[in-house]
Every structure is written in structure tokens, then in C-alpha cells.
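Extended Data, record DUF1329 domain-containing protein
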Amino acid sequence: MKAIQFDRGYSRRKFLGDAARGVLSCGVLMPLAEAIAASGDITKAYPDELLSIEGYTKGKIKTGDYIDASNVELVKDLLEPVRYEQIRTMGRKLRMVKTTTDVMRLSPWEYVEATLRNAGKAQLDARGNVVNKADGRPWIGGNPFPDPKNGIELFAAQTMNWGRHDASFYAVKMYTTEVASGDVKFNYSGGWAEMSPVARVAMEPKPYWPGHEDKLRYQSVFFLTPQTYRGTSFLNIWDYDSSTFPLLYGYVPEFRRVRQFPSEQRFEPLLPGLTLFLSDAWAAGDPLNTWGNYKIVGRGPFLAGLSESWNAAHPNWEHNTHGGPKGKTFWDANVELVPETIIVEAEPVKFPRAPVSKKRVWFDARNQAVVGMVTYDRAGKPYRSFDGAYCLYESGSQKFMDGKHPYWSWAHVTASDIQTGSVSRLEQVRQVENAHYTAANDPAMYDKYLTQVALMRLGGK
């Protein structure tokens, strides 16, 4: 029998000891950043008991097993409270897969290369903006803080580039299920586009798009079905200054014109029935310094979807469901044991009428991706949750390529309103209406999706 040199108690004591000293140093056996820089692999930074579900549960749960109501108590500490309750009482299930140790499989290839190449070159300036240390200009690409020292650095990296591509277009289907009946009450399809004019690592020109260096991103969302909302669309133009609200434009089909919306209007559903706000996007849907009081409140292992989430077997990548009275409430989801997450809380300091008092966000220490979020209402009670699945779009011999490498992105999201019992499911699909296709780093996205003229053109179809 193999002797356990570093058991769960050792890891827990390490995380708690660091917290007591006010230290954030990712990794248990050695600094995580050093392990990644040396080999691109996380294995040497963690004991075996944090690298497999078998090790963590002492064989009681194995790769390929399902987490359900019968065994969820064994992994309660690895779940945020909403997923735990959904598994315990609502029939939600999670299938265990192997822990990913190769960091090149946890983000787009060019993003990881830029992160390693530019490590140590970023800082926050006097206004709280991420800049290049050498010249004070906007960031030059990759994760600016791959070895984060505090909560704001984690959020700064997340806000800098949501999808980690220079440009992304996601064909999306959305469903909202009423928990009590199990019926799908709302069903939408459309597209989401985002483009970074700075910190570019794959698209020319790099790292900046001349004439747009004062912008952080262009982002739009539009809807095609149902017919009632066809053509409804929104465009966000983000200033690079992280204290400035984005310009928010919307196309309203019945008025056949683009209008500007209040810039702080970010805590309302995009369309009726969706439990998803603009503020929720990637758990960092608002400029960095419109939130504040960032603080690390915990560290430890977690269950999250970081691999095997692409449904290559379906021609449009659509996912199967389960749970609830009619088996339509939750996605069939694969999760792995994440050896270490960093839990950060933040408060909406520039939103006097915000319906939330704070958000609590779980970041994967391996790649700093958000793997879970819970928001709390003004009374401090859990309000809404947001959990998603990412993956490399590679399954056996099947691959969806992003240039020279397999595409990496999100696959599906579950957004739950805990207080109303409503669950919205979003999935990234191959295409919608044979006209809009998921893609990355295509410069044509700007004219097609990210201008006011584009909104009017989409709304007229």
C-alpha cells in the first residue's frame, strides 16, 4: 500500500495557514507558477490527494462515477451551496472525469504562450488600470497576473479578456425552466460577440489595434428567436479606464432604431425569463473599479467543468439534460477535481440601486478562470448562481480548430435564481439559422456584429 505523505489535512492546513498570514501563494508542494513555467504541468505543485477524486475521497468516488444525492455529502466541501442543494434535492448530477494537469489544455494556446512570455510585466496604475510596466501603456497580452497576490489581480485578469481570444463569436441557445413544473418557459437563440482592441495575441495588428487603444472591448448580443424578440440586440463599448461605465446601445425592433440605454443598467434580464444580467458576464460583466472591497475569503479544492464538455457527437454541439420533473432542468455535465481554487468577494460600490450586496467568485488557480459565482441580495441572502463548463474542443479524432490549435472556450452555463426557483441554461452551439457560426479571431466580426450599423442590419433580418 502506498503511504500518503501529504493527506487532505496537510493541504487544508497549508491553505488555512497562508490565509492566516495574509499570504496568497498558489500551490501546496511548490509554487504553482514555478511548476507551470518549468514544464507546463501542475503535478509537482500538489499532492496526489488533490489530483484525483479517488485520492480525495479515499476511493469512495472514482473517475466515471456520478455525484448525486446518494453521495454528495462526500464532496460537499467541493461545491458552492447552490449546486450542493440542487444535487441534494432537485436531481442534479455531475459526472467525474480526470483532473487536467497540462495547462496548455486550460486556455487558448496563444493566450497561454503570451501569459508565460509576459509574466511579471503587468501592474495596476494609479487609476487601477492594468498597464505594461515598461511604458505605462495598455496591457500587451495573456494573463497579466498569472501568479496573483490578491483578489483585485484575479478580477483584473478576468475583466481584461473574458473569452481569452482576441475576438470571439458564440452561437448560443438559451432555455429557462420553471423548477416546480419542469417546463421550459422561455427558449431563445442568438449570438454573442466580443473583440479586444488591446492585448491581442493572435490577430494582427498586435498587441494594439491602431486608433482603438483607448477601448478595452467591443461586445454585443442579439436574439433571433422567438419571433417576438427577433432583432433585439445590445452593444457595449468599453473604455480602457476601469472606472468608466461602458456605452450601452440597444436596437428595439418595434421602433426600428438604435437608442442609448443608461450605462449603469446592468442588473436586469436581457430578455424576459432569463436569469442572466449583463453584470454576470464571465462573473466580471462590469468595469473592474465599479466594484470594490475585493478580498480573498477562502482557498481549497473544488469540482468544476474544465474538460470533456464539448458534445462532438451532436452535429450542432447541443447538450443533453436531466433533473427536475421533466428531465429538462440541468445540463448533463462533466466535472473534475480542481486542486485549488481561490474564493474572492467583491461589492458593487458604484451601483447605488444594485439588487445585490456582494458576489462570491471561485477562480481556478491553474488558469485563473472563473468556475463558480454566487451573488447575494441586499439583505445578504443567496440570490443567484452562475456555474459553467469550459473545454478544449477535441474529442478523440474530432477537433474544432482555432487556427493551428483546437478551440478552447466555454461549452455551457447554468444560471439559477435561488429565490424564484428559475434555472436558465445556455449552450454554445456550432451555428444558429445557418447564418451565424461560432468562431474565434476573425477580424470581420467587428463590422458584422460590433457597430451600431451592425445592430440595425441584424435587427432588419
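Summary. The first helix runs from residue 8 to 21.
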